[in-house]
């Protein structure tokens, strides 16, 4: 029933896809839905670009805008086959690293394959996990060194 109700609202490309479907499946909404989405599937890069450039429309509520952002992010994550939080972290770091690379370097990394960037991302995450606990300690040592330099032997001598 639902599949029949949406037919008049489909664009030409979607109508064409549905017309080429098995006639037995044309009445099944889920089948029609899946075929249309598969035909119109964007690349992960397109989803990310749409997500990053999405702006709130005039008259759109914050809840509606949030729903559109979540939808695009979900499609992006699904297109990149992310299933765990660690995968999501790696994906975000990987995309950030890619955004900082020069065009030639990015072209080389992408030509070598995704494994080199994933390996680099994993190494950055491991390094940050190892270094992060020591950052506060390093900040404290640096603060002590600055204090010692401010006090310094020359200042100590002048006070006596």
How many DSSP H or I helices?
8
User: Could you say which structural class the secondary elements and strand pairing correspond to?
Assistant: mainly alpha
Number of strands: 0
Q: Please bin the fraction of helical residues.
A: over 70%
- Rg (C-alpha, Å): 27 Å
The whole-number mean of residue pLDDT values reads 75
β-strand amount: under 5%
Largest sheet composition: none
What is the H/E order? Answer: HHHHHHHH
Low-confidence stretches: 145-160
Distance between the termini: 95 Å
Q: What is the multimeric organization of the chains shown?
A: single chain
Global shape: elongated
Q: Care to describe what's here?
A:
The protein has 160 residues and is mainly α. Among the domains are: 1-41, no CATH class; 43-81. It is built from eight helices and no strands. It is elongated and about 55 Å long. The protein starts with a helix and ends with a helix.
What topology does this entry show?
Elements (H helix, E strand, L loop, with lengths): L1 H5 L5 H8 L9 H12 L3 H10 L8 H18 L5 H16 L2 H10 L1 H46 L1
Helix pairs in contact: 4-5, 6-8, 7-8
Main traits of this protein?
160 residues, mainly alpha, 0% strand, elongated, disordered C terminus
């Amino acid at each position: 029933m639902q599949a029949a109700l949406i037919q008049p609202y489909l664009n030409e490309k979607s109508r064409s896809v549905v017309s080429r479907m098995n006639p037995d499946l044309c009445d099944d909404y889920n089948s029609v839905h899946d075929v249309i989405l598969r035909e119109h599937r964007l690349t992960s890069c397109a989803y990310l670009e749409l997500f990053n450039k999405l702006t709130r429309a005039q008259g759109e509520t914050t809840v509606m805008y949030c729903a559109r952002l979540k939808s695009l992010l979900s499609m992006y994550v699904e297109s990149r086959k992310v299933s765990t939080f660690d995968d999501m972290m790696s994906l975000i770091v990987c995309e950030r690293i890619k955004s900082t690379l020069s065009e030639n370097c990015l072209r080389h990394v992408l030509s070598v394959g995704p494994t080199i960037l994933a390996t680099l991302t994993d190494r950055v995450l491991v390094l940050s996990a190892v270094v992060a606990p020591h950052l506060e300690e390093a900040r404290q040592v640096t603060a002590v060194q600055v204090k010692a330099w401010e006090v310094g032997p020359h200042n100590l001598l002048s006070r006596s």
